[in-house]
Structures are given as C-alpha cells and as structure tokens.
C-alpha cells in the first residue's frame, strides 16, 4: 500500500495542513515522546463475552473497539445492504438450510487446525488475526464452522457470519467484514443422480443471456483427489459451475437489461486449502474483470473429520462487503457501519439499488514520522514485513514493527474517522543504520466536518499509544 518517494521526508508528526471548512489551517506542533518500558495503561486480565470468561495471555490482542462490534450483526439487519445481499443468495438457493453461528469466538483448532492450516501459515500470525488467548480467537473465516455444520448431517447449507482480521486501512479494508459460504454434498451412492441434475441446470442456463468462459482443466496444480472417482468428480464440478453461474446471473443479470449485452463470466484455476480442484470466478463488470468468489470440490479429509466419509460434494465462499460495494455502488467500506439514516433509509429488503452520496466532507491529512525500535534484530535488518510475515515469539517483549499493529492502534484510537493510512517514505540513516517510516493519516468523517483541533487531539493520542506500545521514537 506504500508509495516510495524519491526524496526523504523529514516530517514532523503533523507536517501537512489539516482540512476543515477552509482549505488550510495551522498544523499542530510536533509532540515528543519517550518510550517507557512498562505500560501504564491498565487493562482487564480477561475478556468476558456472553457470560464466558477468557483469561488473557501473551497471545491476547483484541482491542475494545473490535469487541464492541461483536453484536452489531449487520448481516441480520433486514434493510442493510449486507443483509439484502445475504437474503438474495439464500432465496436463490431456497432449498438450502440457512445457518447463522451464535458466536464469533471459536477455538484455534476450529479456525486453523481442523482445516489443515500449517503451523507456519501467515494467517495464524498475531499480526493477522485476533486472539483472545492461545486457545480462542475471533474467527477469520466462516470455514471455521464447516466441520461442525457437516456433523449436523446437513447436505446443503448456506452459512453467513461476521469475520475478523487485522488489516491495512483504506476505503475497501475493514477489520470486521462478512462472509457467506455454501455447500452441497451427496452420499456417494447418490452421485449417479448428478448427470440428470446437471442436464436440468444446463437447460435453465440456455435461456438466459450469459456467456461463460471456462478453459479450466484438471492438472497437477489443480488435481482430482486420489480417492475420488474422476467420473463422479466431473459431475460434482459441473453441478458446482452450473449452480454458481446461475447465482451470478441472479446478482448481476440486471446489467444485461441496461446495455443489452449478455453477462460475461470467467472461471479460473485457483488454490484453496480446503478444496481441490479449486476455482475462482470473475464477472466482466463496468469494463473490467471483477473477482467474485472461490470454490471447489470439498477435501475428503474435511468430510472424514466430520464423520461423513461416505459423502462428497462442493463448496463456495464469497465476501458480502466486496459484492455489496460493487452492486450498490458504495464507495467506502466504513459506510456499512454508519447509523446515519441518510444511508440506511436508501435501501429496501430484496432490492439492489444504487447508493446516492449524501455528503463528501474534506479530508484532514496528518503525517507521522518515527524511528523504529532498536532491537537486536533490526539493527542490521529491515523490520518491516508483509502481512503474516515474520513475527517474534509472543512470549517476548520485543517484536518486529508490523504495519498491521500500527494500523490497529490507529483504528482503536480514531475509530471510523480514519479513511486511510499510507506509508509514504522509508529511510535508513547512513551512519547509525536506524530505520524510520513516515505514514500519512487521512482523517475524514462520513457525516460532518472535522475541526483541526479534534484531529490534532486524535493524532496526539495515536502518537502516545504507538510510542507506549510499539517502542518507536517520534521524529
């Protein structure tokens, strides 16, 4: 997400002018902080949710700002875009069981171990995921409920839920979002019925204006599972593709009415840890290919762990925010979380309508420049790592600087007033080898003007927190 500048920015914590009703206001005076080895912030020793206590340990990293969103349930609000999209998919697959998990808290075993995530998978990192403690976490995907759902004996179901991931800050990323996944499995003794089912689905697709581009094939990089019968697996794949092509037309078919051109859908080979063969699906939308969802044939070991070794089938997963932003023309992901009636009143249950912007207030830019902590490891090496990159042992007090940790503090202090955080410069001192970074924080309220004074106060709080908790030194 960073932009490398040709020349080093020798920036104070607030070198750009802020925006309010006027274009330029007086920038705040830089504030100098020193690092304190012991945190003075008093925090509870445990998390409490739904009457259950989760003791904290060295893995605990869920801020109160995230806990506050556990019960928002945007996907259950009838006239909210996220919920509208969920209902449209559920209505399309009207004979599938709709599932809503009761809690976002799952075990690490559910979220990673049962699904075959290796111990060094980046998603397990403290910089990528929210942990209540070493054993429990906030789910990072709806697949964490896959095995428990198969154990219920259900053969076709749709599951919708909010999921949580530490991430960058911009108009399309948010630490809480919503996923939906669906699956259809059959007893192996019933797979001979698939040929007839596929004929019926293919006849339905012939009568709608859709062009399907599909050059996928079985290969070493996208293989059949060795213990599956290739003939039946081919029929499972056909049923998967026919079912999802029909769903995509349901969601995007109105596009064909507006310009008279058929809808174009493209299938691409992909890799997912829980399916093979696996695919991604794209739709040609507003002049470019848009990725919609991932899918594939369910890994047999997942079904084996669920106690249904005698079944086979397919599964898919999609992001409700991503699709909603496209279908409803919503420009900023933060809008989904607003309680402003000017947003919520625009949408009606069961209808996809175009969002009408009701305001656009000016941004307030503040730069924050700082030296990275002088740990033994980063005296001679870069301390920045990509999401899920190398992280020091959580049991130690020293750790590498990670952008997700920085963004998490910004979110926790500023909330939804932060529109984006962008790395604009990196610098290594030629003599001391100390490394510095400069981030540009873009503050913008969705519903009103921000004053320079309130942004300055927020910026100061962010600076104090990152110094306190990350061991950096402001420049």
Polypeptide structure, described:
The chain is α+β, with helices and mostly antiparallel strands. It has two domains: 299 residues, BirA Bifunctional Protein, domain 2; 90 residues, Ferrodoxin-fold anticodon-binding domain (Alpha-Beta Plaits). Helices cover 25% and strands 24% of the residues. It has twelve helices and 16 strands. Helix 5 packs parallel to helix 6 and helix 11 packs across helix 12. The longest helix is centred in the middle third of the chain and has 23 residues.
How would you concisely characterize the structure shown here?
It contains twelve helices and 16 strands.
Give the fraction of residues assigned to helices: 25-40%
The SSE order reads EEHHEEHEHEEHEHHEEEHEHHEHEEHE
CATH class identity of the largest domain: Alpha Beta
Overall, the morphology is globular
Query: Looking at CATH, which topology of the largest domain would you report?
Result: BirA Bifunctional Protein, domain 2
Strand order of the biggest β-sheet? 3-6-7-12-11-10-9-8
The largest sheet, given as strand count, sense and whether it forms a barrel, is: 8 strands, mixed
Could you tell me the strand content as a percent range? 15-25%
Q: Helix count, per DSSP?
A: 12
Q: Class by helix and strand content?
A: alpha+beta
* Sequence stretches where pLDDT stays below 50 over 5 or more residues: 1-41, 377-398
Assembly level: single chain
Number of strands: 16
Mean pLDDT metric: 86
Instruction: Compute the number of structural domains.
Output: 2
Summarize the helices and strands and which ones pair or pack:
Elements: E1 46-49, E2 52-55, H1 64-67, H2 81-92, E3 97-99, E4 105-107, H3 108-113, E5 136-138, H4 146-151, E6 156-164, E7 176-187, H5 194-206, E8 210-214, H6 230-252, H7 254-259, E9 263-272, E10 275-285, E11 288-298, H8 300-305, E12 311-319, H9 320-327, H10 341-344, E13 364-371, H11 403-414, E14 418-428, E15 435-443, H12 452-470, E16 473-474
Parallel strand pairs: 3-6, 8-9
Antiparallel strand pairs: 1-2, 4-5, 6-7, 7-12, 9-10, 10-11, 11-12, 13-15, 13-16, 14-15
Helix pairs in contact: 2-9, 5-6, 11-12
């Amino acid at each position: 997400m960073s932009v490398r500048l040709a020349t080093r920015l020798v920036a104070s914590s607030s070198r750009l002018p802020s925006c309010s009703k006027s274009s330029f206001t007086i920038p705040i005076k830089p504030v100098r902080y020193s690092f304190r080895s012991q945190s003075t912030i008093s925090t509870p020793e445990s998390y409490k949710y739904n009457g259950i206590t989760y003791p904290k340990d060295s893995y605990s990293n869920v801020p109160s700002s995230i806990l506050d969103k556990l019960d928002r349930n945007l996907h259950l609000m009838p006239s909210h875009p996220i919920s509208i999209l969920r209902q449209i998919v559920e209505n399309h697959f009207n004979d599938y069981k709709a599932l809503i998990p009761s809690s976002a808290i799952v075990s690490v075993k559910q979220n990673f171990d049962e699904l075959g995530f290796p111990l060094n998978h980046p998603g397990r990192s403290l910089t990528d995921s929210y942990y209540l403690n070493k054993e429990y976490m906030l789910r990072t995907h709806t697949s964490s409920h896959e095995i428990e759902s198969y154990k219920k004996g259900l053969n076709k179901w749709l599951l919708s839920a909010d999921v949580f991931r530490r991430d960058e800050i911009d108009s399309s990323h948010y630490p809480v979002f919503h996923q939906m996944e669906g699956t259809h499995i059959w007893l192996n003794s019933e797979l001979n019925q698939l040929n007839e089912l596929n004929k019926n689905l293919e006849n339905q697709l012939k009568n709608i204006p859709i062009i399907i581009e599909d050059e996928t094939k079985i290969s070493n990089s996208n293989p059949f599972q060795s213990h599956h019968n290739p003939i039946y697996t081919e029929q499972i794949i056909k049923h998967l593709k026919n079912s999802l092509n029909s769903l995509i037309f349901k969601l995007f078919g109105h596009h064909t009415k507006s310009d008279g051109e058929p809808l174009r859908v493209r299938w691409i080979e992909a890799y997912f840890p829980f399916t093979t063969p696996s695919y991604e699906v794209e739709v040609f939308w507003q002049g470019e290919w848009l990725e919609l969802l991932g899918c594939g044939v369910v890994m047999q070991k997942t079904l084996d762990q669920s106690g249904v070794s005698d079944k086979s089938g397919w599964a898919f997963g999609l992001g409700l925010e991503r699709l909603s932003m496209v279908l409803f023309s919503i420009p900023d992901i933060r809008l989904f979380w607003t309680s402003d009636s000017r947003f919520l009143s625009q949408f009606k249950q069961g209808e996809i309508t175009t969002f009408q912007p009701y305001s656009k207030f000016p941004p307030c830019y503040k730069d924050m420049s700082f030296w990275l902590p002088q740990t033994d490891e980063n005296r001679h090496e870069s301390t920045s790592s990509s999401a899920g990159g190398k992280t020091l042992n959580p049991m130690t007090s020293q750790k590498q600087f990670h952008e997700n940790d920085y963004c998490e503090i910004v979110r926790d202090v500023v909330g939804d007033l932060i529109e984006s955080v962008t790395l604009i410069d990196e610098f290594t001192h030629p003599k001391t080898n100390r490394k510095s970074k400069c981030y540009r924080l873009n503050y913008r309220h969705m519903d009103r003007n921000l004053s320079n004074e309130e942004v300055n106060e927020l910026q100061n709080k962010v600076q104090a927190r990152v110094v306190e908790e990350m061991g950096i030194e402001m420049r």
